[in-house]
Amino acid sequence: MRWLTNILGLLPLKYLQYVGSFLGLLTYWFSPRDKKLILENLSLAKTYFKFEASPLEVAKSAGKMLTDSLWIWKHPNESIQLTELIHWDVVEEAVKEGRGLLMLTPHLGTFEMIPRVLAEYFPATIIYKPAKQKWLNDLIEEGRAHPRMNFVPANMQGVRQIARALARGEAVGILPDQVPGNGEGIWAPFFGKPAYTAVLPAKIALKNNIPTIVFSAIRKPHGKGWSIIAARMTESFHADSYEAAQQLNQFLERVIIEHPEQYLWMYNRYKQPTGAPPPN
């Protein structure tokens, strides 16, 4: 598989995205689980918010999310040149406050592009869950390597590194819509259905009133690159964990429905982590 991903990463972005679209459609047609997740999650969100999004376009976007990453890892400098920054003044103002920066990057568009762009401007420590397959994890770590990006595992060691980065006034990044482990989240509505939601973002932001910005990397058509859009959460997180989780999910919902076809609806956002209590 490693040699295949290396070869695919050498294709022009436009044609690699055709490959991604095809892979996404294959997944939709031949993986009952993924098709079921797309249809159910998309239908739920459409009931909660009125918007249009084709399940087939959602599937194609999921495939492009993978192939975009392959291209970015092979063409780091070119990928930066293909990126447009929107509302970047929001980021500059937050950084000037000198308290660090909490970057939240949901599974929307080509989120792999976001830390690479941000690292061009300031050091960033990003917490993530390593891939289960060693070859894939090695590929990801190699592709993400950057002198100003520090990827740390989603465990206590990683949380300590996050705390040290914030103490230095640096930026930290979290996938806010990733299902956390048992004891690391709380059930809160996400598009009207209880989802086990991470409490770490609110804890980080509340500790020293850290500015919180949600970033999305929206894919432009025909391999023309991406728009990195910054949206600051201007309202402070509530001290109550449930209220804070609601705030987070509501903000993410508003960002996602701006470009619903590029959200990873096949992600099992509503699963119950092992050992976690069921939703009330």
What does this structure look like?
With 280 residues, the chain is an alpha/beta fold. It has a domain at 82-262. Helix content is 46%, strand content 18%. It has helices spanning 2-8, 13-30, 32-48, 55-74, 76-81, 88-96, 113-118, 134-144, 156-167, 200-207, 241-256, and strands spanning 83-86, 101-104, 124-128, 149-153, 171-174, 185-190, 193-198, 212-219, 226-232. The strands form 2 sheets. The protein has a 7-stranded mixed β-sheet with strand order 1-9-8-2-5-3-4. Helix 2 (13-30) crosses helix 3 (32-48), helix 2 (13-30) packs across helix 4 and helix 4 packs across helix 8 (134-144). It is globular and about 45 Å long.
Q: Residue share in helices? A: 40-55%
| Span of the ends, CA to CA | 43 Å
The residue-averaged pLDDT reads 91
How many H/I helical runs?
11
What class, by secondary structure content? alpha/beta
Radius of gyration over C-alpha positions, nearest whole angstrom: 18 Å
The total of beta strands comes to 9
For the biggest sheet, the summary is:
7 strands, mixed
Order of helices and strands: HHHHHEHEHEHEHEEEHEEH
Strand order of the largest sheet: 1-9-8-2-5-3-4
Spans of at least 5 consecutive residues with low confidence: none
Give the overall form: globular
Q: β content, as a range?
A: 15-25%
Keywords:
46% helix, seven-stranded mixed β-sheet, alpha/beta, 280 residues, 9 strands, two-stranded antiparallel ribbon
Task: Give a summary of the structure in a few sentences.
The chain has helices at 2-8, 13-30, 32-48, 55-74, 76-81, 88-96, 113-118, 134-144, 156-167, 200-207, 241-256, and strands spanning 83-86, 101-104, 124-128, 149-153, 171-174, 185-190, 193-198, 212-219, 226-232. By secondary structure, it is of the alpha/beta class.
